[in-house]
Amino acid sequence: MSAILTATSETMRKMNEPMTPDTAGTLSRPPAGPFAAADSALAMDLATRLERVEARLTEAAAQSDRLPHEASHHLMRAGGKRVRPLLVLLAAELGDGTRSDVLDAAAAVELIHLATLYHDDVMDDAPVRRGAPSAHEVWGNSVAILTGDLLFARASLLSAGLGPDAVRLQATTFERLVLGQLSEFTGPRPEDDPIDHYIRVLSDKTGSLIAAAGEFGIRFSGASDALVDPIRAYGEKVGVAFQLADDIIDLTSDAETSGKTPGTDLREGVPTLPVLYARRAAAAGDASAAEVVALLDADLTSDEALEAARSALAAHPVTDQARAEARRWSEDAITALAVLPAGDVRDGFEAFARQVVERTS
């Protein structure tokens, strides 16, 4: 397990390093290093296959015209953790991970993810993604939105090549991604519990695609169908844990470590779990929580006001409560793996679930 833990942790760091065009104009990423250096044949195999997935991504996004070609490769060149294709490959080790269909499935999952990032950045008016200017900052909203559509179309072509089951899985997953975004936009209904609503949004927006990644790996490696449900349960739960950890990172990490200005979610009015916990505590009569809520509801335009709200919320017990909740989701994800055969694959999934809540970026 230690080798997989080392590989997974190092991969989360290395894969966030930017990729740059090589002399042929294609994409290069850090060599298979983190997995190849680890004392594990599985780690080496996954790293090699991830390189092949990277080549498929580059090919799938290729266009004959310059603008769509450059725009489609923009976020690929900016880097990224490649978490979702990695999970496809890891799940596929429960069957025959060498199948070509597995690589296509991994590429399709990442293209879906990339497509959502183009759209998210427009909706959030985010100026930066992965350390580079967002696509809408470079080419405008229309090009960014259309590029997201284009990448989703290319993902659909890859899925179509895998057959109707893949198309169905992609369609149902994308529906949940969109519904989750709409649900976040509209907010909870008066009769809804805001925290329950928030968890459902995270499950749809993040958990659904991670769950689909695991299912793609199982189905297209020829692994037992009995493994689909536990892998999906794991993906749903680890996806929620991942996003809850992001809530903490936004509050407690410095900009150099996290790559974003601390408190950005607060300034944008995003109802993260610490904020929701603070509001619930204030409504129940907690005076210290009420003081935090007053800072959160103030004008956060200035950096000074934002920092006051951020530091007060980070220091309040509700943030530790939110951190504990993220870890609970992580442990529940690990529990879902109990039916998987013992060995490096299950150890790798467990290591990833723990890593997502212990990371700082």
From TrEMBL:
It holds the Pfam family polyprenyl_synt. Its EC number is 2.5.1.1, 2.5.1.10, 2.5.1.29, 2.5.1.90. Residues 1-10 have a biased composition (Polar residues). This is Octaprenyl diphosphate synthase / Dimethylallyltransferase / Geranyltranstransferase / Geranylgeranyl pyrophosphate synthetase. InterPro entries: Isoprenoid_synthase_dom_sf, Polyprenyl_synt, Polyprenyl_synt_CS. Residues 1-33 are annotated as: Disordered. One of its GO terms (molecular function) is all-trans-octaprenyl-diphosphate synthase activity. Keywords: Magnesium, Metal-binding, Transferase. It comes from the Bacteria. Belongs to the FPP/GGPP synthase family. Its cofactor is Mg(2+). It is an enzyme of class 2 (transferase). GO terms for biological process: isoprenoid biosynthetic process.
